[in-house]
TrEMBL record:
Its cofactor is FAD. This is Choline dehydrogenase. The lineage of its organism: Bacteria, Pseudomonadati, Pseudomonadota, Gammaproteobacteria, Alteromonadales. GO terms for biological process: glycine betaine biosynthetic process from choline. Keywords: FAD, Flavoprotein, Oxidoreductase. One of its GO terms (molecular function) is flavin adenine dinucleotide binding. Its EC number is 1.1.99.1. It comes from the Bacteria. Residues 81-104, 254-268 form the Glucose-methanol-choline oxidoreductase N-terminal domain. FAD binds at V83, N91, G92, M93, V94, V219. Transmembrane segments: none annotated. Belongs to the GMC oxidoreductase family. It catalyses: choline + A = betaine aldehyde + AH2.
Length: 550
C-alpha cells in the first residue's frame, strides 16, 4: 500500500494535463495510473499514420456498441486510447474548440462557471498557436497547433472557394471570433510530431520527484469509507495493489472508462449495479447516462487530375514520405491531411453551426482499410448537435468485462433531418465552379440517392462514428447530473471526474481541445486557485440566423 495526495486514473487527454498541473507544487505527491503503455511509436508520433494506432489493440480499447436500433442493428466501433496520452495519442489531431455558444449551453444546463468567457482563458493557457497570441488564441501553452502543410494541395483551396461561391462566409480562424464559415483547419502537430498530451504535458515533467507514473495498471474500483473516497484498487503485473489518497481521487478514464469505474465501485443506479452483481455504495442514477457522440459519413468524388493522396498509397511513395519525415519531420508525413474545413448551419432558425466538414484530398476510409481505385477526394460531414442519447452500463463486477455501450444513434427525428441537410448542402457546395477542374462524378453516396427515404437508408448503412463519445457523467445540478460545477461527484467527498464524460452537451467540433480545456480549468478548481479571467471578447452570430440558413 502506498499513499499519495492525488490519484489520477487515466493518462489521457485530461489526465496528463492534471498530472502536470497538480505536481507543479513539489509538496503534492501525485500518482498517475494508465492501463496502456508507452506512446513512443512512430505510428503514434508521425501524424500521417493516424489510422494505425486507433485500430491497434496495443494502443486502443477496441470497444463496440450493442446493435444500434436506428442504424439497421449495426454494431459500431468505439476505440478509446489505451496508451500514454490516451485518445490524444490515437486521434486525428484535429483542433476544434467548439462554438462559443456550446459552452454557454453548458452553463444553461447547470454547469455554473463554464460559459465561454470563463473557458476561453483555459483554451488560451493550453495552446501555442502558430500565428501567435491574440484575444482568442494562446501563444505560450504546452499544446502545439498549426495547419500542417499550409494547404499546398489545390483541392483544399477549391473547397474553401466553393463554400464562398455557395454563399457561405470565409472565416480566418474558426477557433477565434467566428466559427461559422469555410477556412483552414488546425491540427495538434508541433515540429512535425503529434502534439498529444503525453508529449506536450507529461514528457517535460515526468521526472519530477513527486510524480509517479505507472503504466499497465487496471483500476478495479475507487475505495470508499462511508461517503468519502480514500483511494483505489488496481492490478499491476498480476498483483492487486491499493493506493491511498490523502486529498482526492480523480477519474480521467474517459467517457467509457470513468462511468464504468464508478459503477465498479458501487456508484451509480441501484438497479443497474445490482443486475451486474455489484454492491451499491452510493445511488447516483445518472452515471453512464446522457451518452452522446458525433456521426459522420464520407462524401466522395472522382478527381480529374492526378493530384490526390490516392497516388501516394504505394509502398515506394509511402517509403519516401516516411523517409522525409524521419529525416526532417516535414512533408506529407507531418500532417493529418485535414487542412481545410467548414462549419455551417443546417437550416434557418439555428443560431450557431451544427454541421462540420473535414476536407481530405483522397478517397479513402478513415481507418485506411479501403481506398478508391483511382484519384478522388472526399469531405467528411456530420450533424454535430445530436439530440439522441445513449448509455454506458456495467455488465459484470469483473473490471475486465467491457460495459454495455449503446448510443441510440439517430433516435431523434431532428438528427435524421440534420443528415438529410448534410447530403443536400454538400452536393450544392461541391457543384460550385471552384471544383469544375477537379470534380469527375460522385462515388458516394451516388447520384441516384435523392429522396428523403433514399438518403435516410444510405445514412443508416454508411454513417460511422466520428469517435467523439462524451457526456456520460454530466456536470450539473439536476437529478441526472453526476458531478457538480467543481467536477466533484455528487454526494461524495474526495472524488472528482475530469474528462469529456462531464460535458453536459456535446460541442460542435472535435473533442480533444475542449477536454484539455476542462482539465486545465479543473486543475485550478482542485488546487483552489483563483480562476483565470480575460477581457470579454465578441462572438459572431449571424444577424439573420432566424430567417436564413446562410
Amino acid at each position: 500500500m502506498s499513499t499519495f495526495d492525488y490519484i489520477i486514473v487515466g493518462a489521457g487527454s485530461a489526465g496528463c494535463v492534471l498530472a502536470n498541473r497538480l505536481s507543479k507544487n513539489p509538496k503534492h505527491k501525485v500518482l498517475l495510473l494508465e492501463t496502456g503503455g508507452s506512446d513512443k511509436s512512430i505510428f503514434i508520433q508521425m501524424p500521417t499514420a493516424l489510422s494505425i494506432p486507433m485500430n491497434t489493440d496495443k494502443y486502443a480499447w477496441q470497444f463496440h456498441t450493442e446493435a444500434e436500433p436506428f442504424l439497421n442493428k449495426r454494431k459500431m466501433h468505439c476505440p478509446r486510447g489505451k496508451v500514454l496520452g490516451g485518445s490524444s495519442s490515437i486521434n486525428g489531431m484535429v483542433y476544434v474548440r467548439g462554438h462559443a455558444k456550446d459552452f454557454d449551453e453548458w452553463e444553461a444546463n447547470g454547469a455554473q462557471g463554464w460559459n465561454y468567457q470563463s473557458c476561453l482563458p483555459y483554451f488560451k493557457k493550453a495552446e501555442t498557436w502558430l500565428n501567435g497570441e491574440d484575444a482568442y488564441r494562446g501563444g505560450s501553452g504546452e499544446l502545439g497547433v498549426n495547419n500542417g502543410n499550409d494547404m499546398v494541395n489545390p483541392l483544399y483551396g477549391a473547397f474553401i472557394k466553393a463554400g464562398e461561391q455557395a454563399g457561405y462566409p470565409i472565416t480566418d480562424d474558426y477557433n477565434g471570433e467566428q466559427q461559422e464559415g469555410f477556412g483552414a483547419m488546425h491540427m495538434t502537430v508541433k515540429g512535425g510530431y503529434r502534439s498529444s498530451t503525453s508529449r506536450a504535458y507529461l514528457d517535460p515533467i515526468k521526472n519530477r520527484n513527486n510524480l509517479t507514473v505507472i503504466t499497465g495498471a487496471l483500476v478495479s474500483k475507487v475505495l470508499l469509507e462511508g461517503k468519502a473516497a480514500t483511494g483505489v484498487d488496481y492490478s499491476y503485473k498480476g498483483e492487486s495493489v491499493t493506493a491511498q489518497a490523502n486529498k482526492e481521487v480523480i477519474l480521467s478514464a474517459g467517457p467509457i472508462g470513468s462511468p464504468h469505474i464508478l459503477q465498479l465501485s458501487g456508484i451509480g443506479d441501484t438497479d443497474t449495479l445490482e443486475k451486474a452483481g455489484v454492491k451499491v455504495k452510493h445511488h447516483l442514477p445518472g452515471v453512464g447516462l446522457n451518452l452522446q457522440d458525433h456521426l459522420e459519413f464520407y462524401f466522395q468524388y472522382k478527381c480529374k487530375q492526378p493530384i490526390t493522396l490516392n497516388g501516394k498509397l504505394g509502398v515506394f511513395s509511402k517509403g519516401l514520405i516516411g523517409a522525409q519525415w524521419l529525416l526532417n519531420k516535414s512533408g506529407l508525413g507531418a500532417t493529418n491531411h485535414f487542412e481545410s474545413c467548414a462549419f455551417v448551419r443546417s437550416k434557418a432558425g439555428i443560431e450557431w453551426p451544427d454541421i462540420q466538414y473535414h476536407f481530405l484530398p483522397a478517397a479513402i476510409r478513415y481507418d485506411g482499410k479501403s481506398a478508391f481505385d483511382g484519384h478522388g477526394f472526399q469531405v467528411h460531414v456530420g450533424h454535430n448537435k445530436p439530440k439522441s442519447r445513449g448509455s454506458v452500463l456495467i455488465q459484470s463486477a469483473d473490471p475486465k468485462v467491457a460495459p454495455k455501450i449503446q448510443f441510440n444513434y439517430l433516435q431523434h427525428q431532428d438528427d435524421i433531418e440534420g443528415f438529410r441537410a448534410c447530403v443536400r448542402l454538400t452536393r450544392e457546395i461541391i457543384s460550385q465552379p471552384a471544383f469544375d477542374a477537379f470534380r469527375d462524378g460522385e462515388i458516394q453516396p451516388g447520384e441516384h440517392i435523392q429522396s428523403d427515404e433514399e438518403i435516410d437508408e444510405f445514412v443508416r448503412q454508411s454513417v460511422e462514428s466520428a469517435y467523439h463519445p462524451s457526456c456520460s457523467c454530466k456536470m450539473g445540478e439536476d437529478e441526472m447530473a453526476v458531478v457538480d460545477s467543481e467536477t466533484k461527484v455528487h454526494g461524495l467527498t474526495g472524488l472528482r471526474v475530469v474528462d469529456s464524460s462531464i460535458y453536459p452537451t456535446i460541442p460542435n467540433g472535435n473533442l480533444n481541445a475542449p477536454t484539455i480545456m476542462v482539465a486545465e480549468r479543473a486543475a485550478d478548481l482542485i488546487l483552489g486557485n483563483t480562476p483565470l479571467s480575460s477581457n470579454h471578447v465578441s462572438v459572431h452570430i449571424p444577424p439573420n440566423w432566424q430567417e436564413q440558413q446562410r
